[in-house]
Amino acid sequence: MAYYQQQQQHSDPTFFTEDHDEPQRPRMGTRDAAKMIARQRQEIIASELSRIAGDEYLEDIMKHMRHMEDETMPDANLIDMQREIQWYMRPYLIDFLIEAHAAFALLPETLFLTVNLLDRYCSKRVVYKQHYQLVGCAALLIAAKYGDKKDRVPQIHELNNMCCGLYDAGMFTQMEMHVLNTLEWTIGHPTVDFFTQLIVAEEHDKVEVEHMAAYICEIALYHRDFVSTKPSIMARSSLALARAILGEPEINDGEWDHVENVTLLTLSQHLHSPSVALARKYSSSHFSGVAKKLASFMAHQASIARAQSGVPPSPPSESASKHSNIYSTPHKGHGAVAGVVEGYMTPPITPDGAAYGTVNKDAYPMPPRCPVTPTPQPNTAAYAQQQVQQQYAPFVHQHTTGHHMA
Residue ranges under compositional bias (Polar residues) (predicted)? Predict the structure, then answer.
C-alpha cells in the first residue's frame, strides 16, 4: 500500500526527465544557408572544371613525364666504373634508406626519388666507399625537401645519429650542395609511384594490388638489373605481377613490348629473397600484409614444383666461384698514377686531407666477398627458383602473343 502511494506521489510524467540545460543551437539564417549552398555548388563546379582540364592536358602532362623520365635516368654501366663502390654494398645502403624513410614517415615517392638521386650522382662522380652513406643521406634530404611537408624533413643531427656520428654536421650540407650542383638542380623525376597511381586509378585495382606492386618495386631497388629501367615500365610490370600473385584477373592494357616482358620476367626472378628489413615493413596491416602473402605464394609454388618432379635436378657442373664476383665492380685503375682521378673529387675531401683527418679509412672494413647466391644443394632454393621462373613464363608469353594476335 505504501508503495502504491509513493507511485501516486511521483506520477508526474516529467519526474524522471533529465535536463542537462543544453544550450539550443542557433538556427542557421537564410543568408547563411544560401552561402553554404553556393559554396557547395562552387566546389562541384571546380571539381568538374579540374576534371575537364585534366582530360585536356593529360596528353601534354604524360609527354612531359616521358621526357623527364629519359632525362633523369641513371646509367648502371657508368656506376660499374666506380673504383670503390661495388654492387654488393648497395643492399646495406638501401636497407638504411628504407628504415630512415619509415622512421621519418616520408611520402612513398620520396624513397624512389632518393634512390634516383643517389644513382644519378654515382653515374657522374667518383664516390669513395666511406662517403657512400653520406651521399645517400644527402639524397634523402633533397628528396624530402622537394616533396614532403616541412615538419617531416629530417634534421641533420637526426641523420647523423642514425649514422652513429660517423660524419660532421657540415659534411651533410656540403654533400647536399655538391649533389645538387652535379645534377644541375634537376630534381624532378617521375617516380614509379606516380605511374603506379595513374594505372591503379585507370584500372580500378584493389588497394592490396597497389601495395603488392609497391613491395615489388622496392625489392627492385636492391638490384642492379633495374637501375636503368624506366619507372613507367617498372610500374606496369609490377602491377601485372602483383595481380598474378594475388590471383586477380589480368587486365588487357595494351600490347607489351620486349623490354616490358623481360622486366616482368626479371622481377619474378628476384622475389624469392627480399630484404629482411623490407619484408618487415610490408608485413604490417598498413600495407595489407603483402610480404606474408608473397612469401606464402612463393612457398606454394615451390611445393608444387617439388610435387611435380620426384627427381631433384642435378647440381650445376660449373663451380660457384666462377660467378662469385658477378656484382663486383671492375677495378679500372690498376696501376694508375696516384692522385689522378676522373672529374674531380667528391667532397668532403678524401680522408687523406688535413680537414677531415678524423675520418679513419680503416674504420670502413670491406665486407668479405661471397657468391650472390649460395652453392645450390639438392632440393633447395635453386630448384624452386627454376620452377617459379617456369611458372611465370606462360604469363609473359601470354602478354607477348595474346596482344599481337589482338
Answer: 1-14, 317-328
Q: Is the per-residue pLDDT at 395 higher than 70? A: no
Q: What are 8's three cell numbers?
A: 501516486
Residue 120: pLDDT over 90: yes
Q: Which domains does the chain have, with CATH numbers?
A: 76-182 (1.10.472.10), 192-308+382-405 (1.10.472.10)
> How far separated are the first and last CA of the chain, in Å rounded?
93
Q: Show Cβ contacts of residue 349 under 8 Å, excluding neighbours closer than 6 positions.
A: 355, 356
Higher pLDDT, 212 or 45: 212
Can you give the pTM of this predicted structure? 0.66
